Amino acid sequence: MPIPQTNAAIPNFDQWQDDFLRDRLKTGYILGTAAIFIFALLDLTLIPTYRQDIFISYLIMFGGVGLSALFFVSPTGQKHPNWAMLTLGWAYLVVPQIWVTLGGRVIYSNSSWLLTILGITVLVPVRLRNHIILQVSLLGWHLLFNSDQALTYQPENEGGILWAQLYSFMQLIVICVLADASVYLYERLQRRSFEHQQKLEVSNEALAQAQHNTVEANRAKNAFLASMSHELLTPLNAILGYSEILIEEPERPDVNSIQADARNILLAGQQLHSLIDNVLALARLEAGELQLILRTVDVPQELALLTERLRPMLAQRGNAFRVVYTAVNKTMETDARKLNQILLNLLLNANKFTTDGEIYLQVQDSAPGQNELVFAVIDNGPGIDREEIHALLSQYYQPQNAGTHSKKGVGLGLVICQQYCHLLGGRMEIDHNQPQGAIFRIILPRQTEQTLAKQLK
After folding, report:
1. Backbone angles phi, psi at 109, to 5 degrees
2. Which among 190, 205, 220 is the end of a domain?
3. Which of 128, 299, 401, 451 has the smallest C-beta neighbourhood within 10 Å, fewest atoms?
4. Is the pLDDT assigned to residue 179 strictly greater than 70?
5. Cα separation of 73 and 76, whole Å?
């Protein structure tokens, strides 16, 4: 099952508005052009007296819309769709009035201006500042050039004309303010809707990821149970098989053969013991029942005992093993059993993925002043893919590269190592060994926080 992909970058509200406006503009150009064409036919048919003025005004309008469309498809128009919206508004409202300014007869009455400004303001609610720019340009053009021709009635004196102009201007201002208020409220509602939509998308992605993790956890658990049965049966069958051979041939004179069978029983028993120990350790870790037993540990002595325990298993896979100890101090305050379990799991892991190779355990001091000890298990096996380094520390995980398909395991050892490291106040690092192999580093303090606290008291 593929991992759900989340959006690389969630757009902000302005970006979302720009995308929204681009889609709306495409529809606006198509519907607007169709509406202009229909109204032009109606006006030319129903108002034969002013056909020349109507034809020229609509022709100018078509030209303005065409220029606006060319600007919209340009890189600048795509980057700034609000500018394209302004050019479209001017094409619908300002450009046709050029003919009136040049001496042609007026097409729009004052009521038409009110409805048109209100309509284009409400139908295109994107950004308030752009509506104000559009309204100011429309009102300015109207008042400067066409105020004497666009009145709803003709008063008899100049004073009446002035008051009519002021009344017309106040009407336009009131309509624009109401329209701007509606745009402001609409934009707030739009912004809140956008934020809720973004939260919903994030929640859906988190839910999809959680569902994916649950499916993967169930798959890993099933694989673990299948692998566990195999891992338990393999050493158990070896113990039973070689034990039966020893019982069936009690008087076998070949001492070397008897020792070989006994050695195989020992190896199988150690393998079984290590597996059961890991399972129990993980159960105690998850239950929070582990307690540290701190004491002064002679590190070289512990490593010597560990080497003796591992030697038969290393020899079985033809791996050479060497301990390189360069640390100045040979002791540290820690839990000897936990340290032994960490190193045992790391060395068994290196032995499992290395055949006829070399495995090193390097012990050295960390950087000056750190008071830490670094244990590095180095092998020249198939190595680890960089993509799998983090997954290696997941419970039940097994590497999936071509060099490890044939290797069996239940994927507990490294998880336990990491948990024990944290418990001892240290950390674990995984790296590549050039040109081939892997390096597992354990950095542990020479004295745990509990020991330091006792010393301070």
Report:
1. -85, 175
2. 205
3. 401
4. no
5. 8
